Amino acid sequence: xxxxxxxxxxxxxxxxxxxxxxxxxxxxxxxxxxxxxxxxxxxxxxxxxxxxxxxxxxxxxxxxxxxxxxxxxx
Length: 74
Prior knowledge:
β2 and β3 form a beta hairpin. This protein starts with a strand and ends in an 8-residue tail after the last strand. It contains one helix and four strands; from the N terminus they run βββαβ. It has one helix at 34-53, and strands at 5-12, 17-22, 30-31, 61-66. The chain has one domain: TTHA1013/TTHA0281-like (2-Layer Sandwich), CATH 3.30.2390.10. A four-stranded mixed beta sheet has the order 3-2-1-4, covered by helices on one side. By secondary structure, it is an alpha+beta fold.
């Protein structure tokens, strides 16, 4: 592996969903909650790594989430 695998959850405030950015081929996610996103990533990443790259066993995957929100200061 030349670079570590990663999955990033990015918040889209207009759509109200978390969507994915990843270097795991075929991993495309869009969910309403971050918990659901992480659960689906953990479910599908191993299958895709095995099918697309022939990997087996423990494979490290970096997970991060980014988003933001506006506040009204009083």
